[in-house]
Amino acid sequence: MKRSLPWMLAGVVGLWMGCGGPPEEQGQEGAPEEQEGLISQTILRQLPDGTVTQETRYITPEERQAQFDAREEYARRLRSGMPQQMMESLVIDDGCAGSSLWLFDQPNRLGRQLCLYKNPVDTYAFINLGSIIRYIVPGSPLPRIYTWTAAVRSLWSGVDAGNLATCDTTRMACYSNAPYLAFGTYQQLNDLSFPQLPGTPTGPNTVFLEN
Fold first, then answer.
1. What is the pLDDT along the chain (211 residues), one digit of tens a residue?
2. Burial, 4: exposed, middle or buried (Cβ in 10 Å; 0-12, 13-18, 19+)?
3. Which of 38, 74, 111, 154 is positioned for an S-S bond with 105, CB 3.0–4.6 A?
4. Closest to 67 (Cα-Cα) out of 91, 43, 89
């Protein structure tokens, strides 16, 4: 029987408190410079025991292009009906390459990247984007913390379909009239914008994945 276990990120919440307050949910203004010539990738993995690991690393544009190429080739051969055992060598599980969903904070799959790995034995996964830090801007008396809420500007899905939605993550209820986006498997959406609606948050703050 498949389990249905939401992702939990207590460790990241603890990091917010250590930095002195809740995260900001604004755009790119004040974003610190990335390491020269490198791209930030944050990777979340849901493990079989239900725990979640998170890491942020920096890769070169050439390394990210290799991941893009591997994902394109895997999707192409999947659509062609190639037997699974002949495709295993194509899955490059190096960081983001084989993840369930890629999210980017700039259009056209540029900028910072968030890679989500759903446990394949689970039916679905749910993640609060407000619990994942994109970057921190040093300041006085407190730093400004920017999360992935309302920050997604492009995406590339993997083997799981799902949606980006705007929800009250305390009551676990989503707004029917707020920014929402559904996506299929291996779908590329390269220019996303979510206009602010009166009385709602500025953009999607949750991800739902389902196999």
1. 333 334 433 233 323 323 333 444 444 444 555 566 899 999 988 777 777 888 888 999 999 998 888 888 878 877 777 655 543 444 445 567 777 899 999 999 999 999 998 887 888 888 999 989 998 898 888 999 999 999 999 999 988 999 999 998 888 888 888 899 999 998 999 999 887 667 666 789 999 999 8
2. exposed
3. 111
4. 91
Please, are residues 105 and 153 in contact by the beta-carbon 8 Å criterion?
A: yes
Token representation of residue 35: 């390491």
Residue written as token pair 């609606």: 197
Distances (CA, A) of 29 to 135, 146, 169: 11, 10, 25
Cβ atoms of 208 and 163 closer than 8 Å: yes
Q: Which residues contact 144 (CB under 8 A, 6 or more apart)?
A: 24, 30, 136, 137
CB 148 within 8 A of CB 7: no
**Per-residue tokens: 205:** 């703050």
Whole-angstrom Cα distance, residue 83 to residue 112?
34
User: Rounded CA gap, 119 and 46, in Å?
Assistant: 5
